[in-house]
Automatic annotation (TrEMBL):
Entry annotated with the keyword Calcium: no
Pfam families: Creatinase_N, Peptidase_M24
InterPro entries (alphabetical): Creatin/AminoP/Spt16_N, Creatinase/aminopeptidase-like, Creatinase_N, Pept_M24, Peptidase_M24B
Species: Clostridium omnivorum
Segments traversing the membrane: none
Protein name: Xaa-Pro aminopeptidase
SUPFAM superfamilies, A to Z: Creatinase/aminopeptidase (SSF55920), Creatinase/prolidase N-terminal domain (SSF53092)
């Protein structure tokens, strides 16, 4: 983890935004820049220095482990406003950028009232867009645990079991295999509930003749995986089999097209046009995918009309789906690393329809 080069990515924003400092408050960026994953504390990066501002719970850890940050102890008496104002005075700072999407209105109001400089909001989401080797290895490990969990759960599902039981078993197995926890609330949607793209696991009983969509992920060393598979329990109606095959084909074609230089809008259209030609365009209502890393949904969005270009080192999801109200649904999702030669799948569970 080369924190110095990551900090320089932030300093590159100084010229773009004509500023002398940037204040980081989001847990994801504090971890990315300072190896601190907490809702508490701040990182302040200036032209001359970088400060990790934490309370007593983290101070000794930061002081002992960080050699590139100046640790600053925050307390009731020495609050964040006093600390930043001292740094403003010491370094002659006139303008500070902050993560506007990450703080509350009340906190912004306090900053505006108490900090002795101009403030402006900026978006740092792009700094994590290209993954380094350590990040890729952690995502690969999270994907491997997710694949193992899927292979385990297909032997667990049976007629009469509830969606909630499937979720609980997935979470148990993920932790047993070394995952810290799930990346997000696990989705298990069977039968007509499969038409709910984000149908979290319920007490519904899974029955023979239904499709079951499972969307889950693993957090490993604070990096995420995100996989979706749809399986059949017993013999399903032909309509469901047909939409499964259509979604599978659309996803495969999009993965083939995931190459450096391709726009995300074009990649989205690769899958979307296949589903539209199959007659189900209006039943595919979400983006084709999203970035993946410390957060399960990161920049960039694999969305219609996006001009963002795929670059070597990006990790994205490709997850087309069809959702038919009152009937059921299908989604198949892969985690894809963009390499010089094209997209490489980091999730390797079978895409072909498994009948249990």
């Amino acid at each position: 983890m080369d924190l110095k080069s990551r900090i320089e990515r932030v300093r590159n924003q100084f010229i773009v935004h004509d500023t002398e400092a940037i204040l980081i408050s989001s847990p994801s960026n504090k971890f990315y820049l300072g190896n601190l994953y907490s809702s508490s504390g701040y990182i302040l990066i200036t032209r001359r220095s970088q400060y990790l501002i934490v309370d007593f719970r983290y101070y000794e850890e930061v002081k002992n482990e960080s050699c590139i940050f100046e640790p600053v102890l925050m307390s009731k008496e020495n609050n964040i406003y006093k600390i930043i104002n001292l740094i403003i005075l010491k370094e002659g700072i006139k303008r500070i950028g902050f993560e506007g999407q990450e703080i509350s209105y009340d906190l912004y109001s306090e900053f505006s009232k108490l900090l002795k400089c101009e403030l402006f909001s900026l978006d740092l989401s792009k700094i994590r867009m290209i993954k380094d080797a350590d990040e890729i290895e952690n995502i690969k490990a999270a994907c491997k645990i997710a694949d193992d969990a899927f292979n385990h759960i297909v032997g667990f599902i049976k007629d009469g079991i509830s969606e909630r039981e499937v979720e609980n078993e997935l979470v148990r197995y993920i932790k047993q295999r070394g995952g810290e926890k799930e990346s997000f609330d696990t989705i298990v949607a069977s039968g007509i509930r499969g038409a709910l793209p984000h149908g979290k696991a319920s007490e519904k009983t899974i029955k023979s003749g239904e499709l079951i969509t499972m969307d889950f992920g693993v957090r490993y060393k604070n990096y995420c995986s995100d996989i979706t598979r749809t399986v059949a329990l017993g013999t399903c109606q032909e309509l469901l089999i047909n939409i499964y095959n259509l979604v599978n084909f659309a996803g495969k074609e999009a993965i083939k097209g995931a190459k450096p230089g391709v726009t995300l809008g074009y990649l989205d259209s690769t899958a979307r046009e296949i589903i539209e030609k199959g007659g189900y365009g209006k039943y595919f209502g979400h983006n084709l995918g999203h970035g993946l890393g410390i957060q399960v949904h990161e920049y960039p969005a694999v969305a219609p009309n996006s001009d963002e270009v795929l670059i070597e080192g990006m990790v994205i999801t490709i997850e087309p789906g069809i959702y038919l109200p009152g009937v059921g649904g299908v989604r198949i999702e892969e985690d894809i690393l963009i390499t010089k030669g094209g997209g490489v799948s980091l999730t390797n569970s079978s895409r072909e329809l498994i009948t249990l």
